Amino acid sequence: MKVSAFLRKSAKKNDTNSQATIYFRVRDKGKDLKAASELTISPNHWSSEKLGYKDRVALVSDEKKNGLNNEIQAIISLITREYDENANAEWLSELLDRYHNPKKYFVQEVVEEKPTFQHLLDDFLLKHKLSEVRKKNFRVICRAMMRYELFVRETKRGQKSFVLDIDAITADTLHDMWEFFENEHIYYEKYPTIYEAIPEKRVPKPRGNNTLIDYFCRIRTFFLWCHDKKKTTNRPFDEFHIEECSYGTPIYITLEERDKLFEKDFSDNKSLETQRDIFVFQSLIGCRVGDLYRMTKSNVVNGAIEYIPRKTKEGNPITVRVPLNVKAKAILEKYKNCEGDKLLPLISEQKYNSAIKKAFELAEINRIVTILDPLTNEEVKKPLHEVASSHMARRTFIGNIYKKVKDPNLVGALSGHKEGSKAFNRYREIDEDMKKELVSMLD
Predict the structure, then answer these.
(1) C-alpha closest to that of 215 among 245, 187, 195
(2) How far apart are CA 373 and CA 387, in angstroms?
(3) In this structure, what are the phi and psi dihedrals at residue 227, rounded to the nearest 5 degrees?
(4) Which helix (H) or strand (E) segment is 290 a member of?
(5) Which residues pair with 6 in a beta bridge?
(6) According to the model, what pLDDT value does residue 214 have?
(7) Domain span including residue 314
């Protein structure tokens, strides 16, 4: 069974005033049900891939875009949850009407039913304070949990009617769910109907221990919210231990390597030169890539970059101010005529990371480094250009400053880390030159 949304109306290229009704469609084993909702959108703003607004739509507020996109996802979740083998077009029309006009059916719903697990998840995402990025990440986990529910029905003897029940989930359930998440890339091939019912844009890939820990930390947050809001008295995570994520020593480039990269002649590849410059600029201000992509020319204030890190925005927002050095100012001057209000000519994050690797390779920044394999948690040796990414720019900023001052609070004031951040523990490695000096004392 697959649920989707679509439009039946188109509009001329520059027509953003016309509105089209958003229809919902259910396809399952020969059935093809369609019904109109009360939601509308300009056909020129519609993305059939994202089932909502296109990424970049001018003159429409983020609040309006997010509101419509959330409603579409809520309806898709509702249809998936309520669908059964007796469903027909009339059922779909009524379900949409009940969603838009719940008061019409109030008399019929006097008896309050216990909310389903999916309903609680939807309620959590609606009411719990989360950024849009975190909500998006959480929905990926929500869909995986709903696939787990279908997987149990499909594979466990006597569990054909299994549902996730907030009051009945135990530590054993969580262990079983962990095993499912860990091997979902295998089940994708073996049980395709599950992924037709609750699809993902990308084929599931093997998940490492840190990813699974992150998933279950988020699920624990949901359970704590349910307990706090008196939705349940169940606390399965009291008996389900979540380990700390394991990370290797942060890999970053030296100032000499950074300058070698910056001075490499890429005049025959202007696009690569531009992304190289952006990487160097990021390594000079130390921001996360998400914050870099949100920056505009207004973030330059009196010879410094000022911004509020997205990670702190929800809790204890702080303004980070990083003075611009000569190299950073030269890069901004080079791209001062960048289109619109953008600070730099950015491309997609995926293409940015690919360009960084290519630039490192061509600049022959390829010393061998030791990293932890995210899947096996084993040490592996790789050339630096293979592990280079946008986050290495941030680590380069932090690591090289930390070498000089070794004061996490001072570095944190520039990097946006909160006071007492555990992240600095990994930067307390004594560098190679210091180790050689210490060993030479034994001569």
Answers:
(1) 245
(2) 11
(3) -70, -45
(4) helix 289-294
(5) 23
(6) 93
(7) 255-440
Single out the residue in 90, 113, 136 at which a domain terminates. Answer: 113
What CATH code is carried by the domain that includes residue 329?
Answer: 1.10.443.10
Element (H, E) at 135: helix 132-155
Yes or no: say if 48 and 41 are a contact pair by the CB < 8 Å rule: no
The answer on 397 and 283 residing in a single domain is yes
- Give CA separation, 99 vs 71, 113, 174, 341, in Å: 10, 16, 32, 40
Contact 372, 246 (CB under 8 A): yes
Structure-block tokens of residue 250: 């942060």
User: Are 163 and 116 a contacting pair, CB within 8 Å?
Assistant: yes
Question: Do 128 and 17 reside in the same domain of the chain?
Answer: no
pTM of the model as a whole = 0.58
106 and 120 in a single domain? The answer is no
Number of domains in the chain: 3
pLDDT category at 430 given cuts 50, 70, 90 is: very low
Task: Verify that 358 and 328 share a domain, yes or no.
Answer: yes
Residue identified by tokens 């600095």 is 424
For residue 423, the tally of other CB atoms under 10 A from its CB is 15
Inter-axis angle of helices 132-155 and 209-228, nearest 10: 100
Are 181 and 207 contacting, i.e. CB atoms less than 8 angstroms apart? yes
Q: Which residue has the tokens 């996360």?
A: 288
* Last residue of one domain, picked from the residues 203, 222, 246: 246
| Residue 312, both tokens | 């702190």
Judgement on whether residues 408 and 269 belong to the same structural domain of the protein: yes
Residue 115 is given by DSSP the state P
Q: For residue 235, what are the contacts with CB-CB under 8 A and spacing of at least 6?
A: 223, 227
Q: Are residues 278 and 377 in the same domain?
A: yes
% of the chain exceeding 70 in pLDDT: 88
